[in-house]
Amino acid sequence: MNGVARAFFLVAIVAGLCGMVWGIQMSASQDHTLSPAHGHLNLLGWVSCSIFAFYYHLVPSAAANPLARLHFGLVVVAVVLLAPGVALAIQGKTELLAKLGSVIMLGSMLLFGWIVLKVPGRVTATA
C-alpha cells in the first residue's frame, strides 16, 4: 500500500489507537460522558479512513487523481476538528468546531462520491 492509500491507512491506525486509549480512559474513570466524541473518532477516523485507504489501494487510477490528495486533506482536517468539537459541544463550551468539522466531512464525502463516480478505473487484484 502506497501513496494516498497508505496515508489514509496511517491516519486510520492513529485514530484507532487514540480511540482505544480514550475508551480505556473512560472505562477506568467510569465517566462515559464523552462517548459520542469517542464514537465519532472511531467511526470517522478508524473506519472511514480504512475504507478510503482500501478503495484507493484497489483503484490506483483514483489514487493517482489529484482530487484524492484533496480528499485526504479534507478528511484529516475534519477528523481533527470533529472529535474534539463534539467533546466541547457535550461539555457546553462551543459547537463551532463540531459544526465546522461536520461540514468539512460532508464535503469530503461528496468529493469521495465524485471520485468514485467520475474517475475511470478498475479494481486491481493485488497479492
UniProtKB/TrEMBL annotation:
Keywords: Membrane, Transmembrane, Transmembrane helix. The chain crosses the membrane at residues 39-58, 70-90, 96-117. This is Uncharacterized protein. InterPro entries: Cyt_c_oxase-like_su1_sf (IPR036927). The keyword Membrane applies. SUPFAM superfamilies: Cytochrome c oxidase subunit I-like. It comes from Ruegeria pomeroyi.
